[in-house]
Amino acid sequence: WAGTQYEWSNKVKEILQDVFKIRTFRPKQLSAINSTLSGQHAIVVMPTGAGKSLCYQLPALVKPGLTLVISPLVSLMEDQVRSLTKKNIPAKLMTSTSSKEETSIALNILKDKNAPVQLLYVTPERLAKSKRFMSNLQKCYADGRLQRIAIDEVHCCSQWGHDFRPDYKYLGILSNMFPNVPILGLTATATAHVLSDVQKILNIPGCLVIKSTFNRPNLYYKILEKPSSQDNCLTILEKLLKYRYKGESGIIYTHSIKDSEDIADGLRKRGLKVGCYHANMEAASRSNVHTKWHDKYYQAIVATVAFGMGIDKPDVRFVIHHTISKSMENYYQESGRAGRDGLRAECVTLYRMQDIFKVSTMVFSSIGSLEHLYGMIKYCLNGTLCRRQLIAVHFDEDWGNTDCNKMCDVCSNPNNNTKEINLETHCKTLASIIDNAEKIDTKLTAQKLLDAWFLKGSVSLRHKGKEPNFSRSIGEDVIAYLLIENYLVEDFHYTAYSTISYIKKGPNMDLIEDKDFVLCMPVRKYS
Ligand code: ADP
């Protein structure tokens, strides 16, 4: 698609340079633009920040007519409309928060044959719920003005995606209602399962899928063992900021608002200049923190994932996760804010077993979420495979012989030790601890199970055998491994204020028979 000369090729080049002031395309952008200009349905899969918007914004200017952009994020739409308007590209939006006047302008654009607007942004909710919008859109189509339908974050159609939105299901009617209007779906979620589900829901089976690589060669990936005390965590962060990342800018992602405030406070007390950012702050203070970070007054922003949109700082040199993300998709997106300038940057995750349960109790009620979280844990537990290869495999990318160039902790440390652990023996021990706990009516957390296994904690929970001949940290990894492989399962209980998860035997525990069932656990040397 990128190598062919089309009747619009010269115009595309002109618009790129004159309107968007961009000299060259990034990988796959031209393929996406040519395919949609040829009238094909297509789904574009590119990592966040790779430049998906250009794939529908530029084609909107090639021929007269209207491009309808369906997007779930109001603030992102507002940003885009603002930036298009600055470029003198007529664009408008209609969301659930639009005033009556804005709504009526948007509706008129669809009806008015002479409307100058080239891009109209709408939320799926508005599309699904406004009959008037749909009837006006039909008029726009009947007039031959509906040129293209772009659906941003198109994975939201699928409940297997990490961000399912019920109103996206409604979009399935578009391909029947508007035959010959090319649909262009855009997403950073690339798993084959989600993509085929999206095609089914949108009624565009077998459509073209244009995918760019997820490999970010300039990002160094690393896992650090997270200490149990907050103070020791602060010491790690302090050292990183004072020495390794001295004079550089970055982000520290935390699990909760409270964590972000506590960690920012703790780091300030240790003499570091950091800002704090979360959704409970006033818009003005958030913007103030963002600016101070942008201008290098703050070395780092300690933030919840609310800090994400609108970050256009190219020289973010580090992204530290104080707690694991809720999925690999989220992790890729959050860590991917590092090194946009193409220079080396580091993505560090502090991992410990307890955090699994902190996150799992938060996400377990949404469909497929535990599976997504367990994907993240696999990434953390891994100590033998190249981390960027794991990321590539997760995004269904063919890794082949791509070289990591020692840009992850596994590849840069070839002397990684591993310890062989006979799962059969240990699973039997763990199963007996769980059976006994049930008998004496005690609910087991992972921590209690670990204690009992290592002959610590409550005497009544301990087993009769020997203490394992490896460290507790390996023990934690084994329990996490058993959890993601369904030997153990989480059992969620609601309380008045929160959810707690306990540990039970999982279905695979019954399959343990093979005497050679040996697990190779990495003995991590954290530095
Ligand atoms: P995505 O939607 O994939 O997350 P965006 O469309 O928001 O990414 O683009 C991210 C940034 O990259 C924007 O600032 C955009 O202007 C810029 N950009 C897009 N394409 C190019 C290009 N070919 N060359 C330089 N910058 C680009």
UniProtKB/TrEMBL annotation:
Boundaries of every Helicase C-terminal domain copy: 235-384
One GO cellular component, as annotated: nucleus
Subcellular location as annotated: Nucleus
GO biological process, one term: double-strand break repair via homologous recombination
GO MF term list: 3'-5' DNA helicase activity; ATP binding; DNA binding; four-way junction helicase activity; hydrolase activity; metal ion binding
EC number, as in UniProt: 5.6.2.4
Keyword Coiled coil: yes
Catalytic activity from the UniProt record: Couples ATP hydrolysis with the unwinding of duplex DNA by translocating in the 3'-5' direction; ATP + H2O = ADP + phosphate + H(+)
Domain of life: Eukaryota
Chief place of localization: nucleus
Domain annotation Helicase ATP-binding: ranges: 33-208
Keywords: ATP-binding, Coiled coil, DNA-binding, Helicase, Hydrolase, Isomerase, Metal-binding, Nucleotide-binding, Nucleus
Sequence similarity: Belongs to the helicase family. RecQ subfamily.
Protein name: ATP-dependent DNA helicase
Organism: Galleria mellonella (Greater wax moth)
Name of the gene: LOC113523159
Section covered of the full-length record: 59 to 585 of 639
